[in-house]
Amino acid sequence: MADDEPSYIDYEAFLDPSFSTTSFANSLVLATNNPSDTPLDLSTPLSRVLFDVQEIDTHIDTLTTKSALPLLEYTKDHAESGERILQEVEAQVASLTEGYKTLEKEVIERYEAAEQLEAQLAEIGGYGAGSGKREDHRAMVRSSNTLVSLRQVLLASRPGEEGEGLERVNVIATLKGDILGPAERNLISRSQQIIREFSMSSLLASNGTSQQPSAASTYAQTEDTKSRTTSALLTLYLLSPALRNATTATFEPALLISALQDYLQTSLKSQGSAASARQ
């Protein structure tokens, strides 16, 4: 066939999205046969299809030969672009993974620690008052240690430090405002109360206003008072604010010192009042 025949290799028809192979085969058979022919001649349309396929293959080969260099460059550019995109995506995935690990370490784990702190406070009795259960004063020390650990992370907010950027996380602000702050105030208040009660019990004993229990009961109460007071003193020591560069030698536990000073002043005043009353 000549190249100028209208029906010869209609590439636009083949490339049309609506092109149907079934319709094309049917029209080709009808074009090479009469409707009354029996049987139909299929060899002629098949030969035409094979000839057209060979012509298309030759045309593709000619185009690729003439445009080999542009095609290779195009393929190379696409491969390099794909590689760059893959590297960029992998870098973004790595960044997201690292960010999640940081989030998990600095937020999720800290929030779990805060939940543990809340449970410890419930053991103390400050949050579970009225439950009828005896308070666990040793939980005050455990809670204080948890608070100190969280405080150290939150204060380490300089570039490169463990808590850098945490202040921008909403859950951290909620953690500090709703759990850590109230928990610390509750622990300090409870510890100061225990020390004051220790002082009052001593005054009552010295004035002889308390009943005389059995020896075993007195010993148990004394040991419990000593243990509870020790926990309160340790709690005030741990929760006393410290400067960033403070060392063990330079650290001054202000809360503990203040509580002891108040205790001594109260004891001295009480002893003075008792001495005056006996004169």
From TrEMBL:
Keyword Metal-binding carried by entry: no
Domain of life: Eukaryota
Keyword field: Coiled coil
Pfam families: COG5_N (PF10392)
Domain Conserved oligomeric Golgi complex subunit 5 N-terminal residues, every copy: 12-124
Coiled-coil regions, chain positions: 86-120
UniProt xrefs under InterPro entries: Cog5, COG5_N
The name this protein goes by in its record: Putative golgi transport complex component cog5 protein
Gene Ontology CC: one annotated term: Golgi transport complex
Any one of the GO BP annotations: intra-Golgi vesicle-mediated transport
